[in-house]
């Protein structure tokens, strides 16, 4: 939490631990949105009791003393509440929907995951080589803009390319975001298909032992071309300037960038900027560099090659800075665990709240509601005659979750069901 | 196996000169054959599949793979579309497929391997169909795809034109097919298809890939089914041994047995890392020493390796704990990491005995991400980093560049093997020849490790003959004593 919050009038919750067993107990007893959670995970399944999607879903809980308990399950919101209030989990992870009730995992032959949302996990710590404001687990509004980049690109590809509609974005409680794609097609994807989708998305590769950061070829795939159109303005706004990451704002930073140009050209520019660097703004510098890029002609003379910059350079630069970096392991397998929405992060006490992808750039991870704040708000409105939830700032997140994600999905289920019924009726000939 | 392949006879009579020979293997052959033929067919097909596997491991692109594979297929699994050979070619193809399908249905891992190679072979064959062969193949198998009307194609022509790789037909005039994206998974993974609202727009030249994905889906289902009948077939005294042997011909993933070498202790590991570990494990060891932690797959790769190298569970717990607790509390370690180590030894969870990862897995499946050091350095490091790492080994400059060259040619496992050979040269010490045994080196990190340890033990023995002699005597004495006590025991028992 930043020092600013402490100065806010009325922030009586700001001091003291934001997460502790008492706060957790209060949260599970009075605020956790069990109904909405279960409505979501039931996926409108008709099968009663233990056959439903909800009942076959694995939950893995991490208890107070870091004891893991896997294969927890329940058939409705009431049972979920009983489980949570009994176990008081510090972490709640969601696994796959299995072919039987997960509790029976030892006794059932052929126990296997059957479906699971397509999930993405994007963590700011994976941007440590490009962000200058924070490192590791810390986050600020500046580097949050990498999440803006990631969300915009993923959203556009998921919706426009793959045609997915039921997507919800969740703040992961500390330094990143999770994306849950809940369309039926997405939930049924095989591991192979998940791997292919991940490959379709990934552009930035490499690590400590692989220098090359992006591998692009010309012409850019339509989805990457669109990503560039989305990212370049964000790159200009948040990466190159002094108020952003400062990539083109100081000689020490731009030198590293110039090294990625063909040697001769990079050297010339470096000399030029050494003298006149302060005369131009970061944006002007970027425009100048972009201006050097020319598309490669098949018969280009060798000499020309040495003195020109390949067109791909500008794409590589923008992508290696701000193209989404997905944690691939999380997305590749059906039975990978991922932290549940509305769980609280034990290190920060912040609730993993859903947020509006369209407003991601104004989302402020440093002011997300904490368990202590929720307790404080409940206290402040203890006499009010409204639902506990509505006394707190969590209400806004839950309502958003319902309005923007859950209800549209439920309406789509209704439509699908009507279509099926009509189709069946048409087959029988009785409209 | 019983009576006649009716399908192919029917087809042959319908079009005697031009048969569609590529099969989807929908019906098993029913005919009689000799056991010898059974084995020859199976082994020939296996050779083809293993060639494919080797080429893929080297990272050959589909086009390159095709050129390398063609002569092998022509020799071992030809498919003449006309002439006197045609029926017997088709028979061998079908029979050998079904034998291996059965033999490889045994485990998830084998099924996956078989599926991958068969799909590659299928793809290869489709790509070799000439003229209207592919169109006839589609017709014959009743495969239909929705053609994109010209007006819809023209509306997307700028996007479509951005997809490279479709054989010189401009987007304006090419024929496209619209399929649900799930059918175009391979193309999506390589970003070789245009996607819109859940549909893939597949140019005609890439339709192969869609057919392959249907083939894959149906073969995958069939393999699951086959695993149900394997037990019955393997119980047949004539077929059982053949089926089991066929599968053993494969994978070079022999589990390394470590009976004739002692286990290791945490105290030895530092020295052994320098002396006897292949590059992949050295990288993990050094990273662990430097950062005092490893990410999940690194712990998995290194932990299983150490387990197979003879480190007991208690020792492994001690070993990792000593490093990890330099940056965390003991409590934290035992809560977050100890479970995993016990799991590795089959003491937690589903209590599976996990085997150490072989080179195949490290090369194909274990690409490291940021902050990760697992995988195969020859495969996953770029040339500069690999050169830097090699320069710190005992190899001289010439040897280093040779190893680097092999890695560049994408012969990762050979690069590793060369590294081993250079580091473990034949030599004569005190009149004794010390030679390393190369069995499995370059196929499994544990084989590398074991061969290196044996080599160094032999070297040590040759350098210190008196010590070796003493040891030998002691052992002999021990055996004698054991025999003695055994005799006594028998006497007592009587």
Domain tally of chain B? 3
Helix tally of chain B equals: 24
Give the mean pLDDT of chain B: 83
Strand arrangement, major sheet of chain B: 1-2-4-3
Structural class call of chain B reads: mainly alpha
**Computed Rg of chain A:** 25 Å
Beta strand count of chain A: 11
Largest sheet entry of chain A: 5 strands, antiparallel
- The CATH superfamily name of the largest domain in chain A is DNA primase, PRIM domain
Helical fraction of chain B equals 55-70%
Percent of residues in β-strands of chain B? under 5%
Beta-strand portion of chain A reads: 5-15%
InterPro entries (chain A): DNA_primase_S, DNA_primase_ssu_euk/arc
Enzyme class (chain A): transferase
GO biological process, one term (chain A): DNA replication, synthesis of primer
Pfam families (chain A): DNA_primase_S
Secondary-structure map:
The complex is a heterodimer of chains A (431) and B (494).
Chain A: H1 3-7, H2 21-30, H3 34-42, E1 57-62, E2 68-72, H4 77-87, E3 91-98, E4 113-115, E5 118-123, H5 141-161, E6 167-171, E7 176-181, H6 184-187, H7 191-201, H8 222-240, H9 251-258, H10 263-276, H11 282-292, E8 293-294, H12 302-307, E9 309-310, H13 312-322, H14 328-332, E10 338-339, E11 354-355, H15 371-380, H16 394-428
Parallel strand pairs in A: 8-9
Antiparallel strand pairs in A: 1-2, 1-3, 3-4, 3-10, 5-7, 6-7, 6-11
Chain B: H1 6-14, H2 35-57, H3 62-76, H4 85-103, H5 108-127, H6 133-140, E1 146-147, H7 150-155, H8 157-161, E2 176-180, H9 185-189, E3 194-196, E4 199-203, H10 207-235, H11 239-248, H12 266-276, H13 279-291, H14 296-308, H15 313-324, H16 330-336, H17 338-344, H18 359-365, H19 377-380, H20 383-390, H21 397-408, H22 412-423, E5 427-429, E6 432-434, H23 445-463, H24 465-493
Antiparallel strand pairs in B: 1-2, 2-4, 3-4, 5-6
Helix pairs in contact in B: 2-3, 2-4, 2-5, 4-11, 5-10, 20-21, 21-22, 23-24
